[in-house]
Structures are given as C-alpha cells and as structure tokens.
Amino acid sequence: MESPAINDLNICIATENGTGSASANNILFKAIFKMGIPCSSKNMFPSNIQGLPTWYQVRACADGYMGRKDVIDVMVMFNDATAAKDIYRVRDGGLIIYDDSTPLSPNLKRDGVQYLGVPANKLIQKIVPASPLRTKQRNMIYVGALAYLFGINMETIKEVLEDTFGKKPAVIESNLICIEAGYNYMKDKGFTQTMARLVAIPNGNKGKIITDGNTTCALGAIFGGVAIVSWYPITPSSSLAEAMEYYFPRLRKTKEGKATYAIVQAEDEISAASMVLGAGWAGARAMTSTSGPGLSLMNESIGLAYFAEMPGVFFIIQRGGPSTGLPTRTQQADIQLMYYASHGDTRHIILIPHDMKSSFDFSRRSFDLAERFQTPVFVMMDLDLGMNLWSSDPLVLVKEPFDRGKLVTAEQLEQWEKQGKKFRRYFDADGDGIPYRTIPGNMHRHAAYFTRGSGHDSDAHYSEDEKDYKETLDRLRRKFETARKYVPEPIIETADGAKTGVICFGSSYEPVREARDRLRLSGVKTDHLLLRALPLTEEVREFVAAHDRVYLVEQNRDGQMAAIFKEEWPELGAKIGSVLIYDGLPVTAGEIVRQIKAHEANLRERVGEWRERKLIASV
Amino acid sequence: MAGEKVNRISLTEKDYQGAPTTMCRGCGHDAISASVIRAFFESSVDPRKVIKLSGIGCSSKTPAYFISQSFGFNAVHGRMSAVATGANLANHTLISIGVSGDGDTAAIGLGNFCHMMRRNVNITYIVENNGVYGLTKGQFSATADKGSVMKGGKVNDMPAIDLAELAIVMGATYVARSFSGDRKQLAPLIQGALAHKGSAILDVISPCVTFNNHEGSTKSLKYVKEHLDPIHDVDFIPPYENIEVDYEEGTDQDVELHDGSRIILHKLGRDYDPSNKMQAVAAIHAAVAEGRFLTGLIYYDPTRPEFIEDLNLCETPLAELGQDMLQPRAELLDQINAEFMK
Ligand SMILES: Cc1ncc(C[n+]2csc(CCOP(=O)(O)OP(=O)(O)O)c2C)c(N)n1
Ligand code: SF4
Ligand SMILES: [Mg+2]
Questions:
Q1: Of A206, A222, A253, which residue constitutes the final position of a domain?
Q2: Segments forming the whole domain that contains residue A341
Q3: Residue B46 sits in a domain of what CATH number?
Q4: If you measure from the C-alpha of residue B100 to the centroid of ligand 3, how many angstroms do you get, rounded to a whole number?
Q5: pTM over 0.95
Q6: Which tens digit of pLDDT belongs to each residue from B72-104?
Q7: Which of A483, A505, A531 is the last residue of a domain?
Q8: Closest-lying ligand to the alpha carbon of B57?
C-alpha cells in the first residue's frame, strides 16, 4: 500500500449554490490553515443566487504553492446535478464522498476510485428540525467526515467556529453538532483512506493572515487617502466597494464623528466614472471599482480624464467577457480595454498586483501616481485575486508622504508671479510632459482655468488649431514616457544559465512559480519576470532581449499583453511565445507546463524543418 | 472704471464677464449668460469660489462666456450632473453653477440628471431649453412639443418631457421656469437658486434662432413670447439688505432661503403656493394642456437636506484634508491584520 502523502491534498466540494456550502467550506479551509499547513482555496461559483452548481477547491500543499492544483484527489459529491461529470473530475486512485441516504445510482459508479458514503440527509434529519437551516447544515456533515478521514482534530474545528461565530454560542453549538455527526459516522463505520494525511505544523502559519484581494485593495485605498468612492454593483468588483463601506466608518471618522470620505452607489458606471472626474478635478482623491461591462461604459469619461488631465483611480476586477460573459469566473482579458481605454490616441498607466500585499500597496500608491500624472490610473485585478481567499504575510503600511504631484497653491502662485512666472495649465514647463495644476478653491486671481475635453492650447483656451492639437497629443505621449520611471519595476528571478524566460503578471504568479519548479525538475531551467505595471519599462525589454525565448503567460485568448510587448518592441516579437489560459478557471501549473513543453517541442520541430530547408536551398 | 456700479465685494458687473461668445447672433443662450452675470454680480458672489460646469452642446459652451475668473469644467455629453456631484463632494464650499441643454439633460444625460436631483446635490442647474439639438444642427430634442414642426417640415409626434415637472417628481428642491428674454424674472430666480442649498433646477426656454425659430415651432421666439404665463413677478432680496419691500398682504409672498435671503413673489392674478407639490404639478399640467409656458418659482422645498448632509461629511472640504486626516494610523492596520489571522 502506498504511504499517505503528508499535507498534499486537493479536495473539491461540489454543491448547489444558495445551500450554505460557503460557510462549511470556509470552516474546512480555515481549520487546515489553523493547523499551520500552507493552503489555498478557489471558489468556482455560478452567476446565480440559488440552485446552480458551485465547486470549491481546498488545497493543502506542503511545498507552499497557492495556485489551483491540476488534479482533484477528493471529490465531495453533494450536487446531484453535476455528479455524473464530477465522478470523472477526480483523479484515478482518488476518493469520492457522497450522500448515501439513498443508494448511489449505477451511472455514478466508475472504476479506479474509492467511494465512501455518508448519509448526510438522514443524519441531519435526526439533528435539525425541518427548516431552511437543515439544508444549510447538511453541508457541515461533510466537514466532519473530511476532518475524520484526513486528520483535522475537532479542537481545531471548534476554534475556527469560535473565531467565525464568536458572539453566537448557539450558532457554534448547532454547527458543531452537525460536524461531529459526520466525524463520528466515519469513525463508527471504521472508514479510512490511505492517500493523504493532514499533519499539523506547529507555528506553520504563525503571523499569516487570510484575506482576499478586493478587501486589500479597499484597505489600500483607505490608507492611501481616497476621499470619494463612486461605484455601481457588479461581480466581481462589488465586494471591493462593500469592504470600503465596512471599513470606512471605523477608519476614517473625525473626532466629532464626521466622515472624511464619501461613498456613493451611483446609478450606473458612467455616472460613477464622471463623479470620480469631478472629484479629482476639484482636488480630492477619488476612485471607482468595476469589471468589464462597467469599464466599457466608462470609456468616454476615461478619455476625458486623459485628455483634460484629471486624476482618478479605476479598480478593474476582471471576469470572463465579452458581454456578460462569465461574471463569476476569472480572466485577464480587459488588458487592452484598460491600456487603450477611450476613442482617440490614449494609453494609460496600469498597476498590476499579484498577491495580497501588493494589492494593498499598489492600491495605496495608485493615488500618488494619479495625482502625479493627472490622469486615470488602473489597478488591474482579476476575480481569482479579488474574491478568493489567500494566505499572506500581514499587510504593511509604507509610511511616506502623499505625492500630490505638481499641485500649485495660491501662495506658490504668488511667489511665481513675483518671479515673473505665469501659471499656464497645460504648458510643459519641465519637459516631462506633466503640466502644473491648480484646483478650485485656490483663491489666487490667476488660478482658475477652463477644463474641457475639446481641443485646447497650453493656456487651457479652446483651440482647433492644428499645432495646438498636435502639441497636446505629443505632450501627453511625453507624459506617458515619463511614467515609465515611476511605475513599480518588475521582479526578476534568475536561474543559473537559463536561456528561457517566463513572464507573467497578476494571479498567474503562483501557478507560474509552481510550473517553473516542475519544469526545472524535468530539465528546463527558466528565469522569471513578474510584470507589475504598464507602461513597460527598460528592465522588461532587457529581460526579453537577454533570453533566447520568452513565454508570456496570460489569461486571455488573444495574447493581449503579448500584443502590447510586440507593439513596443517589434524587433523582439519573434522571441515571445504565448501561454494562454482562458477557460475562466484559476490557472494551474500543469497547464502552463503543458503549453511550454508543447512550444518547446514545436520549436525543435521548426528548427529541424528550417535546417532541412536550408540544406535543400544550399544544394 | 470711474462711476461704474460696484457690488459688496467691489466688483463691477464687467468683472463677471467671460470670453466673447461664439453663439449665433440672437441666440437665447447669450441672453441667459447675461442674466447669470447679472445674478452673480447682484449677489456679490466671489468668482473665485464659483465652479461652472456643463456638458456638450451650444448651451454647454456658454460657461466660457461668463465669469472668466472662475474654474470651469466642460464635461462630456450628458454627464455634467454626475461630474457636479463629484465636485460637490470634493468641495462643498464652492458654489456650483451648471449649464446644460435639453439634449444634454433630457436625452443622453436624463438618468444622471434624475439621480442628481434624487440626491438633492447642491447646484444651480440651468437647462437652456430650445427644443432642438443646436450644435448638431437642428434635430428634435426630447423637450420638443408634440406637433411642433422641424425646419425641414418634419412634425414631432412624441410627447415632450417637461423638465420642471420631472424635477419636482425626482426630488429637486427649487424648481423654476423662465424665458431667456426675461432678465427681470430670470436674474432674481438665479439669485434665489444660488442662495438655495440643494438641487435648484431652472428650465429656461431659450429659442434657437438658427434651427428652431420658424413658423410651426412651439419654441420660436414669437411663439414663446405669445404663450408666456408668468405666475408672479419675482424680486430677490439678499440677506444683508434689511430693506422693507413694498409688501402687500394677500398679494405678495415672502420666501425665505437658506442663507437668510428672500424671494418676494408678487401675485399676478392667481393664488399660487410654491411649497405645494401637488398644486405645482397640476399647474404645470394645466399650462402644458393649453400650450402655455408657466414661468416663475414653481416649486420650493427648504426642508430636505442636501446630499452632503445625508453623507455626514466633515466641515473641511474633502479636497482640503491633509494626510493626517486621510491616512489612518498604522496601528489600525495592525488590528485588521490581527483580525485576518482568525
Ligand atoms: C456621446 C455623444 N454623442 C453625441 C454627441 C453629439 N452632440 C453634440 S451636442 C449634441 C446635442 C446638444 O443638444 P442640446 O443639449 O440641446 O444643446 P444645444 O446645442 O441645443 O444648446 C449632440 C447630440 C456628443 N458630443 N457626444
Ligand atoms: S445653433 Fe441655435 S442654439 Fe446653437 S448657438 Fe445658434 S442659435 Fe444658439
Ligand atoms: Mg437644445
């Protein structure tokens, strides 16, 4: 008999949404976390409130990889609607746990896996009186069953229940009874499995936090001094604004109990973006959060902010598009929509967090960049980062003064005038493309100017003059060039003598890390560059130039980021191979390895073909 | 200039002028700009505390043609209400005046306009209503009356949106209608709107002399003049002027505004109470049915709090708060980290 894998286990729980499984899954995940085992969770939920299938994967991984695991070791089959497919999702040699209150229908049997039945419906009928609560608590049964089978002790579960429901002893008790019922049933039946064991690691997760990227973005913005938030509900971004609604009152009240913030649920995304512009123009740090459909609607306003030069931060939590697409699945397919948002020639600054700490930090810094460059700044997130729970080191507030950019006060204007200098709103005095800015309320006689999205000259006067127009467009491009020196630089990891590079960004980072380790074990050494912003910087160019080939991993069909690379450096374009993952599920290391290996094989074939052709030609 | 009249902050009416207009000669919009200038001058508003906002259209260009010492923001088509909301949240001590057109407000920007009023955002919002899209050369707008004829002969068969009625229903708290050519009525109504805290909507009929001034149009200069139906004559009395007006019991109505200023409404033939919402809506309906333009202060509600009060904003404008007020202490982040460990 194989010896059990220690702390290496991927459990997939199939349920119907709206049945309270989120609560059960959460308890399971947190219990494993509390044991000190590195673990992650991925929630694949439907765009629906009740009755559609949902899958939740909890991965324990001794090696600390947080990406989704390719193979499912255990399937908790609690949704009849998907059972016929679910039995094949689990790997050979895997385990299926099902509700055997009624006998398993023959079409749900397959070879090569172990079945363990737990009569959840029957057990729950004995414990919980008929009520909506009963369906919910039925899910607690599998938590208990899994706990017994894999070695999560009940003390840990109790602690998690206390952390979760702290002030409600009755709720703790009622959940505990159900979990114990599942646990004891397995025990009494003498059920066992030999594939894996969870073994507590003392202090294993000590000092670590569990949170999601939407929450950390919300906190980053609050600590970054955002004063005005305007948003319109849309998955997967709503929980960002909702986290702000939750934390604002606690973090941003004056001694007198007054708000130093305004958060407004707008009537649509056009309004949300427009409010951000009005607020940014009037001198406050302002933001909105949305996903693809909202970003589509915001395009006109974003163009105005770009052309008339107003700060504003746009958090984009990407989901599956186009159109309504897959609202509850993850993608990185709005890269170009962000980068080139609006009609006309536009390009925008994009910050790309890849984990909890960077989403907090970039969120905070985005407001500095928006004010420094007087332009829309995007924080590019995706559903996997934004809505899944991630374990992380604690968030750190880097203490540095807000960068308000080239904001001129009335006193400064007074000084300027004494020196014979004039305030010219759109004049490039410093050669970096960034003009000086005043804000309404500035009481200097010459502070006011007229902001417009139509043609204007350096003094903010209406102009249809071709020279003025071209000068404005060129200066905006100059400003964008300046931004290259201000955006977060990439993080590069090198392996000795690697000729192959891998580039990724955002939520692909964890699975790429795992994939590179696997590639190394199979003899392919790779260097890595974690891209953290657009515009692209010189370090990125050097990285591509220094490698024979570079694999760019992104979560869309068309290689949107690769296209930006190729537009920027056409001469390097041939080196870039795309690894494209766009099924809407969080990326797995296995898929990355598979695609890179396929590329390499192709490459060998192509080199062979080329040699042959060359030989023929030379004959 | 010697001998020129100055206001309480020693500015002349000229100091409230803007860049030379680019409107067609005789356009109603220019006349409205003149009333705006008059109102700001008469109310001694400091131009440095004013923000001028607009959308897109001929009308929306006009903020460039008054008070050049103020900040201006010419937004995109239909979005002024939302931009103004954001600006108001950032700095509620500024005096906002928005100018829009009937296309900008009643079509593309209708949703945002309604929600601005629903929030009762503090603003003086003037719709320069000509029943057409001036800037795109004469298409019907959503305020064109049913049966009104386009320059090319096409007849409008859609009912008009009545912006004053809409404003009352959507929660605006100061609703007036006037006519671009009636400065005597319009200027004091604008002064009242400036003194009011909340959404003050002025639907000002403003004939487009180029595209909608022909026979058969119900927004031509001639037609409008013939069908004006003022409810009352309007006088504005600023808070600092403690003068006794010729106030006639039963004939005049005294409306007190938030800053202590007053509007005196001199009755013209009928009893009218602008604080009565149902009566206001009924009066509009009756006038529309008879093809009259009811003008004057149609509706007024001083009781509804403005948006920033609902939001419990601190006194200092959000735009003026420093990092000490905007960035919570690091210990608070530590606390949150500790909660995330559970
Ligand atoms: C998104 C968008 N669609 C269309 C236009 C074209 N456009 C410019 S002004 C205008 C109508 C303006 O009409 P109104 O607001 O009544 O102003 P007026 O010119 O009559 O004063 C339109 C449709 C635009 N600028 N933006
Ligand atoms: S087209 Fe009409 S609305 Fe526009 S400026 Fe001329 S008269 Fe005025
Ligand atoms: Mg019009």
A1: A206
A2: 211-392
A3: 3.40.50.970
A4: 8
A5: yes
A6: 999 999 999 999 999 999 999 999 999 999 999
A7: A483
A8: 1
